[in-house]
Design the sequence.
């Protein structure tokens, strides 16, 4: 399976504290979306700080905990908090949640994030199914030199279908990955729009690449939490991101639940 030894050690540790040996699904929760954890039935929660070998999550809006339990009879593991390159973690750390999902033989992985809307048709609160990735700087090759044939299109179709059936409107588009930590300039967003970016954010791309390498069935969804720089006159800050996430949390939870059941 080609996973680092540290990942297998973390898995062993989690099993030793009562985690199941196999998962149906894993979910990575983006900024402000950690509330999904409370949807999990019979939850068992463990803080990242208590897991040997796991880095700590340092961003406000990410609680830094693993929650395992059930959603509609499925065994689900949620990562409330992820590891960003801008926090000083190497790409090998940013992909730990994906590798753990694989180590537990999760059948599917659902990745979420908060992102800025570049596409002028997008509004705060929109959910965008990521169907491709643009990297701001391709030299920053996340994770590994492996080919990444990232079969998102097929799952993007089924995700859109499942959302529609659940009465949830979604957008689709390309996620433009920046390493952060600063927000972009107005001129950068202008350039990113010309490149074909629909939403911009500081996570997910390394995770998607690793998921592709590991052959994990994966979908990724961006919650548009703000208009990207220069789209409106509003100043960008992290509070806005959390506010938008709070407004959309129920719809987001419904979509993730349906994906866990139907994808
Ligand atoms: N830019 C980058 N990352 C983000 C943004 C943004 O506007 N919003 C949420 N994450």
Sequence:
């Amino acid at each position: 399976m080609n996973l680092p030894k540290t990942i297998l050690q973390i898995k062993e540790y989690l099993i030793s504290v009562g985690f199941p040996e196999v998962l149906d699904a894993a979910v990575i929760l983006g900024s402000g979306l950690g509330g999904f954890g409370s949807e999990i039935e019979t939850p068992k929660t463990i803080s990242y700080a208590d897991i040997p070998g796991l880095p700590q999550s340092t961003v406000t809006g990410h609680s830094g905990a693993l929650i395992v339990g059930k959603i509609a009879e499925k065994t689900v593991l949620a990562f409330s908090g992820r590891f960003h390159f801008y926090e000083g973690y190497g790409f090998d750390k940013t992909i730990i949640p994906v590798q753990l999902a694989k180590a537990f033989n999760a059948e599917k992985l659902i990745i979420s994030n908060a992102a800025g809307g570049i596409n002028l048709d997008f509004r705060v609160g929109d959910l965008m199914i990521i169907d491709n990735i643009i990297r701001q700087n391709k030299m920053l090759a996340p994770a590994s030199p492996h080919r990444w044939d990232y079969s998102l299109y097929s799952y993007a179709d089924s995700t859109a279908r499942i959302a529609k059936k659940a009465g949830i409107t979604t957008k689709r588009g390309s996620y433009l990955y920046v390493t952060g930590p600063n927000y972009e300039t107005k001129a950068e967003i202008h350039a990113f729009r010309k490149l074909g970016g629909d939403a911009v954010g500081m996570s997910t791309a390394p995770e998607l690449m690793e998921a592709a390498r590991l052959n994990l069935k994966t979908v990724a969804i961006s919650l548009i939490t703000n208009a990207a720089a220069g789209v409106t006159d509003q100043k960008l800050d992290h509070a806005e991101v959390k506010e938008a996430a709070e407004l959309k949390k129920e719809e987001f939870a419904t979509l993730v639940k349906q994906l866990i059941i139907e994808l």
